[in-house]
Design brief:
- The chain has helices at about 1-15, 20-30, 50-55, 65-75, 115-120, 140-150, 160-165, 185-200, 220-230; strands at about 40, 60-65, 85, 90, 95-100, 130-140, 155, 175-180, 200-205, 240-245.
- It is α/β, with parallel strands linked by helices.
- The N and C termini lie far apart (about 45 Å).
- α2 packs across α3.
């Protein structure tokens, strides 16, 4: 119980307690979202993106598999008609699956046993322990689109489960992001391939939680791969952003 409370407190401090971050987040996402747009947060955690997107006037569907994080989301947004909170996960197919939960570091809880094995061998994760498992419902991105509509922006932050999430998407979205972690470099390249098959996208990269792009211009897929190869030795995570180069038909 103490480990869980400490872990959630740590997440709240990281994502809601840093001065100025919320304002920077609102400014950053204003390039993707406008009032009335739909935003999809896959791996909503404790809702920092939800909070920023609501400030922009977007409607939000927040998907989160960790029960403790779902409680936080309901506490913050449960009375907000513009936010739909969905307990569970997104994957390649609908059904049930288990998430490995790290009570003290819930930011790295993961649906992917392979990812957990991979990052466990990295020095930066040597102190992390995945100490429990929880079974959750799983839907696909296409299921979410059929129920809620096509989002203007979709954030995917699922600790190594990005390939499975994107494998359940057949529709080109206007813009999306997915997490990049150097120890799981090859999986990120597979995720990039899945996105690139959906439509004519341009890409950029934002290191860690800087809310700034590493490149002054949007890149082709091969240019992004070269950028990630330069980032990889630094060992710092970040997010890949994809922007469709032509309008999406509703």
């Amino acid at each position: 119980m103490l480990a869980r409370a400490w872990g959630i407190g740590r997440s709240l401090a990281m994502y809601h307690g840093i001065p100025g971050r919320h304002r920077r987040m609102v400014r950053f996402y204003s390039q993707f979202l406008a009032p009335g747009d739909l935003a999809l947060d896959v791996g909503a955690h404790v809702g920092s993106r939800v909070r920023a997107w609501r400030r922009l006037g977007a409607r939000v569907v927040a998907v989160e598999p960790q029960p403790d994080c779902v409680r936080v989301l309901r506490l913050f947004f449960g009375r907000d008609a513009g936010v739909t909170i969905l307990p569970g996960a997104v994957g390649a197919r609908a059904g049930r699956a288990r998430i490995g939960v790290s009570s003290r570091t819930p930011t790295v809880s993961s649906m992917s046993p392979e990812w957990i094995r991979t990052v466990s061998a990295d020095e930066g994760f040597s102190w992390v322990r995945w100490d429990q498992e929880v079974e959750v419902d799983v839907v696909t991105l296409e299921d979410l689109l059929a129920t809620h509509g096509r989002p203007a922006f979709c954030k995917i932050d699922v600790e190594g489960f990005e390939v499975e999430v994107l494998s359940g998407l057949r529709t080109a979205l206007r813009a999306l992001s997915f997490e990049y972690l150097p120890p799981a470099h090859d999986a990120a390249l597979t995720a990039l391939e899945l996105v690139d098959r959906l439509g004519p996208y341009s890409y950029n990269y934002s290191p860690v939680e800087t809310l700034r792009f590493a490149s002054e211009r949007w890149l082709a897929a091969d240019e992004l791969v070269r950028l990630l190869e330069r980032v990889r030795p630094l060992g710092r995570s970040g997010d890949v952003y994809a922007r469709l180069d032509q309008p999406v038909r509703s």
